[in-house]
Amino acid sequence: MAKQYDVLFRLLLIGDSGVGKTCLLCRFTDNEFHSSHISTIGVDFKMKTIEVDGIKVRIQIWDTAGQERYQTITKQYYRRAQGIFLVYDISSERSYQHIMKWVSDVDEYAPEGVQKILIGNKADEEQKRQVGREQGQQLAKEYGMDFYETSACTNLNIKESFTRLTELVLQAHRKELDGLRTRAGNELALAELEEEEGKPEGPANSSKTCWC
Amino acid sequence: MDQSVAIQETLAEGEYCTIAVQGVLCKGDSRQSRLLGLVRYRLENGAQEHALFLYTHRRMAITGDDVSLDQIVPLSRDFMLEEVSPDGELYILGSDVTVQLDTAELRLVFQLPFGSHTRMFLQEVARACPGFDPETRDPEFLWLSRHRFAEPDVQSPKPREWNSDPGTRSGFTPIGGGRYQSRNARRGLEDVLLRSSSYILPGGGATEESEFLLARETLGGGTVGGRSARGGLRDEALEEADREMSAGGGSRERDCAGGFNLDSSRPNGRGLLMDQNSGARCQDKPDNFTRQNKSKSEITDMVRSSTITVSDKAHILSMHKFGLRDTIVKSHLVQKEEDYTYIQNFRFFVGTYNVNGQSPKECLRPWLSHSTQAPDVYCVGFQELDLSKEAFFFHDTPKEEEWFKAVSESLHPGAKYAKVKLIRLVGIMLLLYVKQEHAAHISEVEAETVGTGIMGRMGNKGGVAIRFQLHNTSICVVNSHLAAHTEEYERRNQDYKDICSRMQFSQVDSSLPPLTISKHDVILWLGDLNYRIEELDVEKVKMLIEEKAFQTLYAYDQLKIQVAAKTVFEGFTEGELTFQPTYKYDTGSDDWDTSEKCRAPAWCDRVLWKGKNISQLSYQSHMALKTSDHKPVSSVFDIGVRVVNEELYRKTLEEIVRSLDKMENANIPSVSLSKREFCFENVKYMQLQTESFTIHNGQVPCQFEFINKPEEYSYCKQWLTAKPSKGFLLPDSHVEIELELFVNKATATKLNSGEDKIEDILVLHLDRGKDYFLSVTGNYLPSCFGSPIHTLCYMREPILDLPLETVSKLTLMPVQTADDRSQLENPMEIPKELWMMVDYLYRNAIHQEDLFQQPGLRTEFEHIRDCLDTGMIDNLCASNHSVAEALLLFLESLPEPVICYSTYHNCLECSGNYTASKQVISTLPTFHKNVFNYLMAFLQELLKNSAKNHLDENILASIFGSLLLRNPAGRQKLDMVEKKKAQGFIHQFLCSPV
Ligand SMILES: Nc1nc2c(ncn2[C@@H]2O[C@H](COP(=O)(O)OP(=O)(O)OP(=O)(O)O)[C@@H](O)[C@H]2O)c(=O)[nH]1
Ligand SMILES: [Mg+2]
């Protein structure tokens, strides 16, 4: 069995109220979807263990309140994150416009080197679409982020986007991880096993005694 | 906010608070807020000494009155403040910094807020530590003694009194006993005040302990002398290190059981006698030795192990050993093994050869490579590899290499092999090889030895073993050389039992107990077991052999008899013996022993097995080899090994991990709140409003607490309190929380001006869980209470009749602007509200006994306030005492006292000099001057009736002295001299005509 070790990351979901942050999280961790909107008033989190690159990663995913009046407080949670999902709703032009504001908050409050990824959620709502796919791509490009259109409803790109952000975080911290990995290698080559054996040494003496 | 300012106010001359930080003192489960101030003192010779001053404090420590000295920790040479990672908690970026403060006498643990300020604080403390330069003198901390002696007076560790709150009226304190006798008897105004005081001074527990003790928490209880306590610690640490070193130095495989160690036998070379002594010693302390071995193996494991606890250096990542979780995953995997593995046969060659101390002289192929198919695994055991004394005493023998080479060269030519392990105890050696292609599937290889020879411990007899994992099957191979001589079969049984009980393999996970032989899926046991043929004489035995009547002969085999009697090798199987006994031949021939002893032939060399899915393909001796007085024996097996189907394995693992995640998420504390939005409408000055809600807990016990928002020093605005603000909830239980809103003089002015609003968000935090936001909204009705004098003078209409913007504008207007009368029109000389109260008293209370010394009624105060604020003065109907109290409250609530802060010191200086005093009064801003003169005139009026109302100059001076004159630093506990001067100042004006 491969040696296991754990890395813990904190990922954060932000974006306007109603874009589907809580649903994304529920789909990813519990594979569930709720069609009613119970606005998150506070900060919630769930754990999930995934394997990326052969590394077992435990991610703590924080779901924040999207409502504007709580933003002064939720911003304060950014500094704990290593990766951030910026979520808008493809059926809401307004939520897309607001991404700019969210990004600037991230720049101000999140730690340097935080990894970001842009999510256009509710991709299943094609008939209500207000934000084109290209618009999302364009914006992501501007900010140098990866981009996914997802649907918590139909389970589209959920695992992919979470895995991708985790990967990005791993990559950003590759140095520290490599340090761990070399020390962690437990599959010693057999050559090494042989090396380990001490060669006989000391004076050889042939005088015999029977101990039977 | 820089709290060092508040601390500075409590310090004596020469002491300087360089930096302060607010932290949480953790004692067991208790958490108490403390201010930590680093205080520097400059000695006469220019040297500096430092100490940490720890204060209990109010929610927001602004002035010296808000803090109370709790403890002083001098930065002596043994002082240490270190960052530690809290036990059992994940290290998470951005979380609080936990620091441990150590001195010889005490240990305290604090949590400090994450951020640069804390960093700076820690750096400053580190810099202030005296260091170990022998040149500099040890700091003496003589200056700290003053805090010790001043303590009972300066601090107020006594249960807090209602009037110790700056928000109420400490000005009355000197009047003392006479006032408010009935305060418990009726629910008066002071009742509210009492409550309001506890708003500002949270955490009753904090003050109970605010006695100053230099060394309160001694390590390990009792008062141990500082130095010696520390010395003791250090010794222990050294011992620990020692143990580790000796453990590290000792060889794991060649332990005590293997004989004597070099140091005891070599230097004096006294030979056997000495060696036996050390052997005895060795036997005395077997536990000790195994412990050392154990700790060494732990060390190796730690080096190898992958879960590295993160130190503070890894600020970006948080890695943690989820030991328990791993164990759970593993045990689930074991339970579900059949879901993701299948059985695959591997061919094992097992051989045993007692070589009688000889070197290899002939090719071993006839023994090792007799079958056509190349085995997957070779387990090759030797006994009596070297019979020399040196081998016995020093463990070194050239034979090891010789035989290893001989075996390696004679392995089946049809495959390439890799050596996995070689283990030897004196003459007992075991070699394990696998086909190279299987090497990657071999893991957890461990080897151990057990000596059962001389003294029951020595290595001339005993066993060696190698355990390993082949794919998912655990295998243990044992090679033993048991006691000799026909009659000693019981000894052999005992040797077997000893090997079984003493052979212990350490596990990769050092937290698990060591493995024993029996804990393996497959056990292969080979060796010179030395069981003989009994009851038959030599000739009879030889005859039966001649006739190849092995079955008949087998009936007399001691091993068979002992196994049948279940005294040895229980559960093991042996194949049928179809070959003649392998002992004892004349070396170099196939002839039976012709020596004097003329030993009877015996099946000494045997192979047994235990486990499932094992089938023996052959079991034979190899007569062609003539090097020894024994013949080698071999057995070939097909052993069914559990091989992992990677895809199924991953699926199973994922399932397990998913179910664990689910369990874990279900274990995150979670509650539901009956209400999350609270609206407080028409909040009035000093009128308590309460809203309540219920926290219903889910299935997980949880601890809840309202936490500070970042950059804020309390969990909510100053006018709000949650009761209780923290607590513990059992599963399915609930608690009711009351939110109390109370505006007092500290908060009223900003609410009047609109700088502050009845608006707040509270963060209810569950320990290890979520955060819930609660929002508080509402509106405040401005009041004359808390409004500046000049503002009120410009309000010709009742404050509640004015638009909010006007109230705001007038409240924010600086007093200088107000004085410049060209700016605005028609201000009044004094606030109409003041006039209303004074006029009322003048009309109704001029003869009132104990005026200003009896408490008012709360309800009446509310009525008075409303009358003043709405201007409906004609409706005013209240007792004289209530109006008098309202007047005092009014004066107290003025954000700028009647005698402006800036004039305070001037006034004290010229107290006693009436002319100068009058001069100072004339410099006050006009409205303040007006109010002062007006009040003095009124008080003089009262004094004229002292025969009726029993007032005198002293009483009035003491009541009004500290109301009209307030220390700009905001201290309420004036020292007596200051207090006297303030009273003296007022006294002059009461005695002389204005
Ligand atoms: N059609 C569709 N609806 C979705 C999807 N994701 C979320 N929703 C719906 O959008 C609404 C809001 O979802 P939430 O996840 O509660 O929104 P939120 O971003 O957490 O909102 P706040 O907690 O207020 O910040 C709910 O009614 C969901 O059912 C999706 O992928 N497709
Ligand atoms: Mg939500």
Automatic annotation (TrEMBL), chain A:
<dbReference type="InterPro" id="IPR001806">
    <property type="entry name" value="Small_GTPase"/>
</dbReference>
<dbReference type="Pfam" id="PF00071">
    <property type="entry name" value="Ras"/>
</dbReference>
<feature type="region of interest" description="Disordered">
    <location>
        <begin position="192"/>
        <end position="212"/>
    </location>
</feature>
<comment type="similarity">
    <text>Belongs to the small GTPase superfamily. Rab family.</text>
</comment>
<protein>
    <recommendedName>
        <fullName>small monomeric GTPase</fullName>
        <ecNumber>3.6.5.2</ecNumber>
    </recommendedName>
</protein>
<keyword id="KW-0342">GTP-binding</keyword>
<keyword id="KW-0449">Lipoprotein</keyword>
<keyword id="KW-0378">Hydrolase</keyword>
<dbReference type="InterPro" id="IPR027417">
    <property type="entry name" value="P-loop_NTPase"/>
</dbReference>
<dbReference type="InterPro" id="IPR005225">
    <property type="entry name" value="Small_GTP-bd"/>
</dbReference>
<dbReference type="InterPro" id="IPR041826">
    <property type="entry name" value="Rab15"/>
</dbReference>
<dbReference type="InterPro" id="IPR050305">
    <property type="entry name" value="Small_GTPase_Rab"/>
</dbReference>
<keyword id="KW-0636">Prenylation</keyword>
<keyword id="KW-0547">Nucleotide-binding</keyword>
TrEMBL record, chain B:
<dbReference type="InterPro" id="IPR031896">
    <property type="entry name" value="INPP5B_PH_dom"/>
</dbReference>
<feature type="region of interest" description="Disordered">
    <location>
        <begin position="154"/>
        <end position="181"/>
    </location>
</feature>
<dbReference type="InterPro" id="IPR000300">
    <property type="entry name" value="IPPc"/>
</dbReference>
<keyword id="KW-0443">Lipid metabolism</keyword>
<dbReference type="InterPro" id="IPR000198">
    <property type="entry name" value="RhoGAP_dom"/>
</dbReference>
<dbReference type="InterPro" id="IPR008936">
    <property type="entry name" value="Rho_GTPase_activation_prot"/>
</dbReference>
<keyword id="KW-0378">Hydrolase</keyword>
<keyword id="KW-0472">Membrane</keyword>
<dbReference type="InterPro" id="IPR048869">
    <property type="entry name" value="OCRL-1_2_ASH"/>
</dbReference>
<keyword id="KW-0968">Cytoplasmic vesicle</keyword>
<dbReference type="InterPro" id="IPR037793">
    <property type="entry name" value="OCRL1/INPP5B_INPP5c"/>
</dbReference>
<protein>
    <recommendedName>
        <fullName>phosphoinositide 5-phosphatase</fullName>
        <ecNumber>3.1.3.36</ecNumber>
    </recommendedName>
</protein>
<dbReference type="InterPro" id="IPR013783">
    <property type="entry name" value="Ig-like_fold"/>
</dbReference>
<comment type="similarity">
    <text>Belongs to the inositol 1,4,5-trisphosphate 5-phosphatase type II family.</text>
</comment>
<dbReference type="Pfam" id="PF22669">
    <property type="entry name" value="Exo_endo_phos2"/>
</dbReference>
<dbReference type="Pfam" id="PF00620">
    <property type="entry name" value="RhoGAP"/>
</dbReference>
<feature type="domain" description="Rho-GAP">
    <location>
        <begin position="822"/>
        <end position="994"/>
    </location>
</feature>
<dbReference type="InterPro" id="IPR047078">
    <property type="entry name" value="RhoGAP_OCRL1"/>
</dbReference>
<dbReference type="Pfam" id="PF21310">
    <property type="entry name" value="OCRL-like_ASH"/>
</dbReference>
<dbReference type="InterPro" id="IPR036691">
    <property type="entry name" value="Endo/exonu/phosph_ase_sf"/>
</dbReference>
<keyword id="KW-0967">Endosome</keyword>
<dbReference type="Pfam" id="PF16776">
    <property type="entry name" value="INPP5B_PH"/>
</dbReference>
